């Protein structure tokens, strides 16, 4: 009974860490896509993640539109959580290389999930409210536009039908299956720790 409660507790802690990592990577992607910083949703994400990102901003400056402080904060958070959860679960100290590879896999997984869900939301919005001006709808459009624009140049819309989301979904699935899956296997840790 105690070990089941301990496992459930570790699973809960890992899930909460993965949700926070999701928010950190969302902040990173919003800045990378130059989304509206003054959007109320953007402001909320910044406020929620600032306690973790703040200490890194003193010495890690953004490079172009890439916020290295947020990336470093997410990496350190996930690295420490992987090591701590494996230690508490009784698996011992993982190799630093394996934990680092697991961290990269977790960051990539979070970014791919954000794009996946944002694309689904964008498709639904294009059907039910194509001219929506809600802050959430605007943020979703600003988030996905940098990955959709290059595909639209290659595959222009066919009248009312836009095939570019299908191509992006396939690309996300391939990267998730091949790259993130390979990184997770190379790390030698559970996919649950990575967030799969």
From TrEMBL:
<keyword id="KW-0812">Transmembrane</keyword>
<dbReference type="Pfam" id="PF02325">
    <property type="entry name" value="CCB3_YggT"/>
</dbReference>
<comment type="similarity">
    <text>Belongs to the YggT family.</text>
</comment>
<keyword id="KW-0472">Membrane</keyword>
<protein>
    <submittedName>
        <fullName>YggT family protein</fullName>
    </submittedName>
</protein>
<feature type="transmembrane region" description="Helical">
    <location>
        <begin position="163"/>
        <end position="183"/>
    </location>
</feature>
<feature type="transmembrane region" description="Helical">
    <location>
        <begin position="7"/>
        <end position="30"/>
    </location>
</feature>
<feature type="transmembrane region" description="Helical">
    <location>
        <begin position="68"/>
        <end position="92"/>
    </location>
</feature>
<feature type="transmembrane region" description="Helical">
    <location>
        <begin position="104"/>
        <end position="129"/>
    </location>
</feature>
<dbReference type="InterPro" id="IPR003425">
    <property type="entry name" value="CCB3/YggT"/>
</dbReference>
<keyword id="KW-1133">Transmembrane helix</keyword>
């Amino acid at each position: 009974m105690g070990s089941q409660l301990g496992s459930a507790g570790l699973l809960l802690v890992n899930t909460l860490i993965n949700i926070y990592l999701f928010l950190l990577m969302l902040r990173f992607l919003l800045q990378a896509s130059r989304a509206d910083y003054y959007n109320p949703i953007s402001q909320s994400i910044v406020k929620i993640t600032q306690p973790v990102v703040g200490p890194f901003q003193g010495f890690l400056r953004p490079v172009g539109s890439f916020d290295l402080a947020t990336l470093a904060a997410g990496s350190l958070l996930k690295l420490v959580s992987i090591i701590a959860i494996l230690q508490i679960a009784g698996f011992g100290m993982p190799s630093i290389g394996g934990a680092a590879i697991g961290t990269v896999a977790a960051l990539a997984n979070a970014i791919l999930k954000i794009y996946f869900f944002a694309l689904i939301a964008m498709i639904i919005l294009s059907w039910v409210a194509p001219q929506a001006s809600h802050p959430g709808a605007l943020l979703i459009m600003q988030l996905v536009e940098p990955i959709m624009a290059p595909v639209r140049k290659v595959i222009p819309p066919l009248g009312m039908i836009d095939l570019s989301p299908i191509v992006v979904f396939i690309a996300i699935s391939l990267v998730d299956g091949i790259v993130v899956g390979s990184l997770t296997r190379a790390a030698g840790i559970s996919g649950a720790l990575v967030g799969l």
